[in-house]
Prior knowledge:
Elements: H1 2-17, H2 38-43, H3 54-64, H4 75-83, H5 89-94, H6 98-104, H7 144-147, H8 155-163, H9 165-168, H10 182-193
Helix pairs in contact: 6-10, 8-10
The structure holds heme C.
Organism: Sphingomonas cavernae
Keywords: Electron transport, Heme, Iron, Metal-binding, Transport
Domain Cytochrome c: 96-196
Amino acid sequence: MALFVAFGGGWMADRLVGVSYPDAPAYKPADLDQPVDLAALQRSWPAGLTAPGDHNRLAGYLRAVDRGAIPPPAAGAAAAVPAAPPPDLGTLLASADPARGKSVAGVCASCHTFDQGGADRTGPNLWGVVGRDVASHSGFAYSPAIGTHPGNWTYEELDRYLASPARAIPGNKMAFAGIRRPQDRANLLAYLGSLGSAGVPKPAPKAEPAAGAGGD
Ligand code: HEC
């Protein structure tokens, strides 16, 4: 009788209440397997995974999704990506504005002077820097990193350096993060080029792609 109550009672209760066991865990966060736009994520990499929980959401999605069902990047999207790169330096320089560049150069003024014969500060005087040999301003004590850097300051080299001094010449001691926008750098270079560097050749604008890129 006791056994009947123990097992039979359980069986009876199941029939009466109709227990159903879910096949997915109930604690799973709701949006874990929501579709993630993988193409957009790839385009903005690595900036796309910054919000808290983004990594979990992506991992959850990739675990839940049938991989065969992930749509391949659309043909149009694939074509749009190479059409997007910023204009080359020559193109930017052709329409660059030295007056705007002069105001960009305000951020350099705590460390550099720009006038002919101007004093060295934390950094060397920059009159005529376009075209001059790297680390060649007499009287300034350059770091070994930049002192052994070969070549001269072409527009292209300066553009690379000013985009990220630390990356362009690792170990140099210009404590400056860099100027991110290509247009700002082009304006700045146009200004620097107007300071006793008139003869230095500018890179030629690259030819427009033959078909259909169209403006920007
Ligand atoms: C915090 C100070 C600081 C700021 C701000 C700064 N620089 Fe410099 N810069 C230096 C120092 C220091 C050096 C020398 C680096 C070395 O010796 O490694 C240098 C070197 C340079 C050189 C190489 C010069 C040569 O003779 O080879 C250029 C070009 C230059 N800076 C341009 C700029 C421009 C343009 C800006 C503003 C957008 C700027 N710098 C902002 C400190 C600074």
